[in-house]
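Lecture notes, unit on binding sites. The following record was shown on slide 14. It pairs a sequence with zinc ion.
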Amino acid sequence: MGQKVSCRKNHEKNDLLSAVANGELEMVEAIVKIHPTVLEHATARASLSPLHVAASNGRIEMLCMLLEHNVNVDIVNQHRQTPLMLAVMHGKTGCMEKLIQAGANILMFDSLSRRTCLHYAAYYGHLGCLKAILSTAHSTRVADSWGFSRFVNIRDINGETPLHLAARQRQTECLHFLLDRGALVCATTGGYGYHGSTPLHMAAHGGSVECVRMLLASGADRLQLDPYGRIPFSVALKYKHKACAALLDPSYASMLVWPSPLKVISELNQETKALLEKALLEANMERENTLLMEADMPPSPLHPASKDDDIASESEDSDMELCCICFEQVCTIEVRPCGHQMCALCTLALCCHQKPDPATACAAEPVCPFCRGAILQLIVAKIKTSSDTDEAESSPTEPRKSRKSSFSEGSSSFKGLSAMGSLGRIAGCNSGKVGTEK
Ligand SMILES: [Zn+2]
Ligand SMILES: [Zn+2]
């Protein structure tokens, strides 16, 4: 066998690569032992090096063995792709983590479209890889030299950020994670002063309603023009994505937008954030169902049209405190420091109404609708135990069980809130809760 290897270089390399691909550790070690330079040779003319092969096939042990032989961790193939990029492309998270531990550079660009491993993760939708890359970007010199948010919004040769790619490829999980980590929803592919495509154009092209929904809820602009002068709505129509088009039609009222620039929102703890995000999703889905019905489309099976009844009956059963703003939903959010409580939807409405325009967003932080005090923090309200509820029930100062009040005639609990007026009106509506503050 040794002789065979020594006289036929090409054959030898193929043997090596197929042994690497198949994870035959002993075979590879034997080849390396007989020919200590075989790894260097195999990587010198690298259209594909052993490390690339191990990475893209998810051969972790093989990868570690090769790295122990001091193979260059950032070796590139003919497209200037690193082993890290290939591991990410194939979703081999374990290999990817080993490569990063071994010092692989996350800021390398391929020669095909000048894409980084972050672009690959977003394009192929491998959330585990995306998370690992971003946490590396947070903790390494990339953050110092480049800045984390610049890395998240890194552009390829076409000006596309990872968010653009996730939107076009319908990678909803990656899209959500990128938005959460500061990907710019308004990033365009155009240079300064030129029209460019936004992630919303890409989502309209890709046809994922969920991606469109998430981008809109993050404040994406429905009126931005792409290089052909089209708004996202026209793109959705062109590719016959009717449901996306219904959401993107600028003649309809826009969605509730997550008020990310507000300080109290950006400093939410995970639990509160999850609760509010869910409320946002539900509010927007109600609006969405109305739109889809008007556009003569069946509502998405993911979200039934009449959620309200469920929620109402749920709160009826479970004797929990009703929100004193809408009298429909259960109080789940507590305002700090004053301690007033309201439902997630009302909290969100309160914060979202402060932000009709991103440019003026920083101007006004919302105040508590009950006491007009500053909101320093929003937390999840403690759910009352049954004994607490009993006490509350017997208390004469708690006149709040008047559920299904005048607000209930609207089919949507959110409709009652859609005008700022309702909050003003409610602020005057004194309740048992407010009474305790006096
Ligand atoms: Zn409410
Ligand atoms: Zn208050």
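Take-home: Residues 2 and 436 are 88 Å apart (CA to CA).
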